[in-house]
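Both lines are given unchanged directly below:

***
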Amino acid sequence: CVCVCVVIVVLCGREQIVLGENHALTDVHTVSNIATGHPHQGMFLKSLELYTKALAIQRAALGHDHIDTAMTLFNMGLLQLDQLACSAEAGPLLHKAHALWQAKLGSQLPHTSMCSPKLQELP
């Protein structure tokens, strides 16, 4: 989608100015934003590949228990569950995201509560 690409290019330019061209989070935000746009174009496996790359960068830069890492885990879980019908792969991702958000943000905040219905969809 042209609109998604234009927004991503603008965001990438802004992140490069604020964080620096070689900053790890410049790459992770760019990759994650592009991954978010791919499912809308039917490119589910490419999206999963990009989320996997973003997750690796986040874990290296932010750690395994950061709330941004949890968001990528959640997005990967949603993709696996809703688009690829892979509940066996989605379950651990969604459970990890939920556990991280609950530990960091509490059970009543939107991030944690939006994950609960998806956990109930798992077999």
Q: What stands out?
A: The CA atoms of residues 98 and 112 lie 6 Å apart. Residues 87-105 form the longest helix (19 residues). Confidence is low (pLDDT under 50) at residues 1-23.
